[in-house]
Amino acid sequence: MIKLILGKKGSGKTKILLEAVRECVSKTDGDIVFIDNSDQHTFELDHKVRLVNALHYDVTNIQAFKGFIAGILAGNYDITDIYVDAILRIVGRDYDLLGQMLDEIDKICTDVNITFTVSADRAELPESVTKFA
Question: What InterPro entries does the annotation carry (predicted)?
Fold first, then answer.
């Protein structure tokens, strides 16, 4: 299941995402992954959460990101939740391709919850993206 946290830059999306991660840590028995394009949240996350900097793995476009998610899931069947901060900073601002990617990831993540932050106003985004919000 995919969930999006939408809003303009500076609207508190990351704060909401980090709070969701903290809540998840206390409720799940599975593994949790937090994907970002930096290491700035290293000390804000519980030690049970695996922080992954996508740029360390040269993930800079939508195709690479989709494969990255598939690889993470293939390598660990105990993952129950993935949190992705600032997806547009990782893969670029092509909203139509973002919608296609979300559809493709939704198909391979049938029993994993994935939450993304998207720095854009709902009105800017196509229906292929907002249907996950």
Answer: P-loop_NTPase
pTM: 0.95
* pLDDT tens per residue across span 96-119: 999 999 999 999 998 999 999 999
Other residues' Cβ atoms within 10 Å of the Cβ of residue 106: 14
- List the structure tokens of 8: 């303009």
* CB neighbour list of residue 25: distance below 8 Å, 6 or more residues apart: 32, 46, 48, 49
Domains in the chain, CATH or no CATH each: 2-130 (3.40.50.300)
Asked if 67 contacts 103 with a C-beta cutoff of 8 angstroms, the reply is no
